[in-house]
């Protein structure tokens, strides 16, 4: 049975503003290392999947960026959404396109903008997840073993050990949990059977389609209409005509929270979703004062700050716990505790019609 992969690459990375911008979002930036995040993602997958079996789903704005950054990716493997409808329609659309080429293949779904340090273990886990997905109608997800109480992630509660495979634990999922407050997140970490939701899923395309039919019938009907249209017209024209009718729904809520036979593989991978600027404290080396320093800076009595210069000298004196980021046209200064709220600046820029800074 063939293994395929779908990389979701349509996000705007707004919490990484002002470096992540509408025309060049986070997944196309070199956040860690000499390659962009999507290039690193594809490099990892090519350790065990041919590039011909890798698909990227994005929007029209980023299709050319993908072609430029991943020239070996077949052009037909770039799936373009005409409008964002969350992850369930995104995954559903990818599944019917993959079914045309690779009937009943195993399908790995993952975001384009994560950092994974232990690539060898990551591949071992994905291969194991594929094996589990081929047994019955199993849906499999990767759960990251939490290292601290994190309020920015959803959690997966496991119901206990179901099996061992390839030296890995396979747990049945009890439930998916929304992002908690700090007190609840602390309780989850102490409980030991809660894992961060990585947003990485593995299933057989045929099984996913059955679940969509049972749990999201409206979306199923639209996908069937598109499948018929693919044989009669240009694929992109059919998608442009039909996709906007899709319900806006996440795959977590639409399928994973309601389906049976869901399993989680606990992972320790050096994983990070780089969701906001504070992620740099986890992936970069800190100086003797706990700072992350990038670029041209002069820092005196500066502690626990994240500072990135794009060329101009950033000089700091006697400051603590700040994020300072300079780009060609924007300088961001905010408290680290407000890192998750940077989207409020995006909202205000839109209200003030300052789209040139987005």
From TrEMBL:
Keyword set includes Nucleotide-binding: yes
Reactions performed catalytically: alpha-D-mannose 1-phosphate + GTP + H(+) = GDP-alpha-D-mannose + diphosphate
GO biological process: GDP-mannose biosynthetic process
Family annotation (InterPro entries): GMPP_N, ManC/GMP-like_b-helix, Mannose-6P_isomerase_type2, NTP_transferase_dom, Nucleotide-diphossugar_trans
Protein name: mannose-1-phosphate guanylyltransferase
Catalytic activity, EC: 2.7.7.13
Keyword terms, alphabetized: GTP-binding, Nucleotide-binding, Nucleotidyltransferase, Transferase
Domain MannoseP isomerase/GMP-like beta-helix residue range list: 295-349
The species this protein was found in: Paenibacillus radicis (ex Gao et al. 2016)
Domain Nucleotidyl transferase: 6-285
Family: Belongs to the mannose-6-phosphate isomerase type 2 family.
GO terms for MF: GTP binding; mannose-1-phosphate guanylyltransferase (GTP) activity
Keyword GTP-binding set for record: yes
């Amino acid at each position: 049975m063939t293994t395929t992969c779908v990389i979701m690459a349509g996000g705007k990375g707004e919490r990484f503003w002002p470096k992540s911008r509408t025309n060049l979002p986070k997944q196309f930036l070199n956040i860690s290392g000499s390659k962009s995040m999507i290039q690193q993602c594809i490099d990892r997958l090519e350790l065990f999947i041919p590039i011909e079996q890798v698909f990227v789903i994005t929007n029209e704005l980023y299709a050319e960026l993908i072609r430029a950054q991943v020239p070996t990716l077949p052009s037909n493997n770039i799936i373009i959404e005409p409008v964002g409808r969350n992850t369930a329609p995104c995954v559903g659309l990818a599944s019917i396109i993959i079914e045309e080429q690779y009937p009943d293949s195993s399908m790995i779904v993952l975001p384009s903008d994560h950092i994974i340090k232990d690539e060898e273990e990551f591949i071992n886990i994905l291969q194991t997840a594929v094996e589990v997905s081929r047994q019955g109608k199993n849906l499999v997800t990767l759960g990251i073993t939490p290292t601290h109480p994190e309020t920015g992630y959803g959690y997966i509660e496991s119901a206990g050990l179901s099996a061992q495979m390839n030296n890995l634990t396979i747990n049945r999922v009890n439930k998916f949990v929304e992002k908690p407050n700090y007190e609840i997140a602390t309780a989850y970490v102490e409980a030991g059977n809660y894992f961060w939701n990585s947003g990485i899923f593995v299933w057989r395309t045929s099984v996913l389609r059955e679940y969509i039919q049972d749990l999201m019938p409206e979306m199923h009907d639209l996908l069937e209409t598109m499948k018929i249209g693919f044989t009669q017209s240009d694929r992109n024209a059919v998608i442009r005509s039909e996709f906007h009718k899709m319900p806006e729904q996440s795959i977590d809520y639409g399928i994973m929270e309601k389906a049976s036979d869901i399993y989680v593989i606990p992972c320790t991978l050096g994983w990070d979703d780089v969701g906001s600027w504070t992620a740099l404290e986890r992936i970069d080396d800190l100086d003797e004062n706990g700072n992350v320093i990038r670029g041209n800076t002069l820092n005196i009595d500066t502690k626990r700050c994240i500072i990135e210069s794009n060329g101009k000298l950033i000089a700091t004196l006697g400051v603590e716990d700040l994020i300072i980021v300079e780009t060609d046209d924007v300088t961001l200064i905010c408290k680290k505790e407000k890192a998750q709220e940077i989207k409020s600046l995006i909202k205000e820029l839109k209200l003030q019609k300052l789209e040139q800074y987005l």
